[in-house]
Design a protein that fits this description.
With about 325 residues, the chain is of the alpha/beta class. About 40% of the residues lie in helices and about 15% in strands. Strands 2-1-3-4-5-10 form a six-stranded parallel sheet, with helices on both faces. The termini are far apart.
């Protein structure tokens, strides 16, 4: 990569010591579990990821004590309170409060311990509702947010700002990544609080098993969405930790999208549902289109590997295998 490209993209080549202690905050969730799996696969021997039953990241004193006791070398902040359009629209106070507390507690504790490498994971919802497509990182704070998830977005924007502030004030090489819509094994399949893909998987599976002839989905089906398998995100996280060091966030996605209607048709095909599909246009659509410009990440040498159909089949198989088990959050 040329010197100009390195200056623009913050390219570095800084392999992480495989014996370094890595703390994956939110290590039991969809993203955190995938990150932990990938790190172990890549030879890391000291990967920590306590669950919320062991460490409540909203408890500032507990987080500070944990960091002082365990002293991680690297932190991946994947912990967050997340949910689909209904959860975000009906619980904005909790989404704002919980995520702000988690982020501030972890970032402050990491700074107190002078953690030298930290990756903060945000979300594509940080960008304006009507941002030019595909969305470049520079679109941040250039327009109003989607009202149904503005509280969550504001919390994530605060996290980005804190990481940038730490870089500026303390000189620590911390970075931010903004994933697109994620899915995969270990997702949340709750009927009201899940994101669109697990929600569709559950809905079509239950309809097929019950013999229902009709499934009704929210909205018009016309918004366009981009989907990334969580294992691809995990690969991107390590790639960024080893190849990126700059102030701005980096988008993580596939660079392609499809309509929610097309998504539903694909899920129905994977699940084997053959009944009718209807759309409730009285329910909100959310942002009309949200596809990320991933040129900054591809310039750093990364590309996704898991196609949507393959990823959906894998996720559905996991869902069926774990029906009725504690592993399935439903």
């Amino acid at each position: 990569m040329s010197a100009m490209a390195e200056a623009v993209y913050g390219a570095v080549h800084r392999p992480l010591d495989r014996s370094a202690r890595v703390h994956v905050a939110g290590g039991r969730g969809l993203v955190g579990s995938a990150v932990r799996r990938h790190l172990v696969h890549e030879g890391f021997t000291d990967v920590l990821g306590p669950g919320s039953d062991e460490l409540d990241l909203r408890d500032r004193s507990a987080v500070s004590r944990w960091f002082a006791s365990n002293r991680p070398d690297v932190v991946v902040l994947a912990a967050a309170r997340v949910g689909g359009i209904r959860a975000n629209a009906t619980l904005p106070t909790e989404f704002l409060s919980d995520n702000l507390r988690i982020q501030v507690n972890v970032l402050d504790a990491a700074r107190e311990q002078s953690v030298q490498r930290l990756l903060f994971l945000g979300s594509s919802c940080i960008y304006p509702k009507y941002a030019d497509q595909p969305v470049r990182e520079e679109a941040l704070l250039t327009g109003p947010l989607e009202p149904t998830n503005d509280a969550y977005a504001i919390a994530k924007i605060a996290g980005i700002t804190q990481v940038r502030a730490v870089r500026r004030q303390y000189g620590l090489p911390w970075i931010c990544a903004m994933p697109t819509n994620l899915y995969g094994p270990g997702d949340n399949f709750h009927p009201e609080h899940s994101h669109v893909l697990p929600s569709l998987i559950r809905r079509f599976h239950e309809a097929r098993m019950s013999g229902a002839r009709r499934v009704v989905n929210w909205g018009t089906g016309t918004p366009r969405r981009e989907f990334l398998h969580v294992d691809d995100l995990a690969r991107a996280c390590l790639h960024l930790l080893e190849h990126y060091d700059a102030d701005g966030p980096v988008n993580v996605g596939t660079g392609s999208d499809l309509t929610i209607r097309e998504t539903a048709e694909l899920v129905a095909e994977v699940v084997g549902y053959q009944g009718d599909v209807e759309w409730d246009a009285d329910q909100p659509d959310g942002t009309p289109r949200k596809m990320l410009d991933v040129s900054r990440l591809t310039a750093l040498g990364w590309a996704p590997r898991i196609g949507l159909r393959e990823g959906l089949a894998q996720t559905y198989a996991w869902y069926v295998e774990h029906l009725g088990s504690r592993a399935l959050r439903h």
